[in-house]
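[agent] plan:
  1. take the single chain provided in the ticket
  2. run structure prediction with default settings
  3. attach structure tokens to the ticket
  4. add a short note for the reviewer (M.T.)
[agent] executing step 1
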Amino acid sequence: SLHVYIVDSACRPAILLKDLSSLVKSIYITQQRVARMKWTSYLFGLHNADWASIIVEMFSEKLDKLCLRNSDYPGYLTLESSDTLRTKLPLLGKPIWFMATCECYKNELKQKSKEFIVRADDNRKYSPNMRIMHTSRKNELFGFF
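[agent] step 2 finished; step 3 output follows
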């Protein structure tokens, strides 16, 4: 397992994540509170990043399982980014398991196709989340999650 405590934007976090995604099949990121951070759209050293593009690129590599926990800065994932992920991840042709903190959908969202389940809700006990999972992985947890 890899624990990263501080990520500075100078280390090019998006490139780091893409490189990691070419080496491992699963990544679990928990964003901790950063002292004096006032932005609500922050994750992994980036403010106002295009997370949909970054996540799609990550899944285009070896990665097939990703969990992003970010209850302190939930604005990192916009409604537009969430909708992009709902559209693009199922088209990558692999059995993806994706879960992320997401406050974009005020009403519960449920979609099911032949191969993918997409759910988003705002009433989770700890933090609202979005899930995009291949039907073969719908009951799968994250190992220690």
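[agent] step 4 note for reviewer: The chain has three helices and eight strands.
[agent] ticket updated
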